[in-house]
């Protein structure tokens, strides 16, 4: 039995997942096996909220990491990881580095691996982007963009100011003449420092405008290997 089949997870649809593979391939099947072992160990040990989600294979040649929002249940996180780890391995079969994201209606998760130490080291700035259809009731993109900026400014300092176990913030703002409610959360991997986290969240906000707020999307999510930003007009 595959370790990741232990949680009977509903499979995400294709539009709910994304991945990025790095350059260069592993040069031996032993390292590919070590990647599998490292992910199995990560999955087995992952525990919210007091496990930072980093591990390595027994030969210390492959390092893995995972991230779930601390607001969700342990079994929900494991269900998300059980869908995302095989998806990443399938789509980055031999590459030395890779990251994948699964974004569902109420939560998301990230997994990554590399052939070098990743704890405390910022990843390359690659992004996954997910958006909802345009919100016809909110026809003013400038108002939504300003609302997203307000939400980002409120959340990012709080998230970046977290400790070595949790860098996470959740909240809401009102925007526009009609006082639309906008909800969201931000999170960084807890191993990176405050300034690195802030930069990542600023970049996530810029990516959010490109994919989502300028297109009047009802909701949007931008994710990297070190942080993410999520907003919605629906209370969660």
UniProtKB/TrEMBL annotation:
Q: Which UniProt keywords apply?
A: Repeat, Signal
Provide the Gnk2-homologous domain boundaries. 14-118, 125-236
The record's section on InterPro entries has: GNK2, GNK2_sf
Official protein name in the record: Gnk2-homologous domain-containing protein
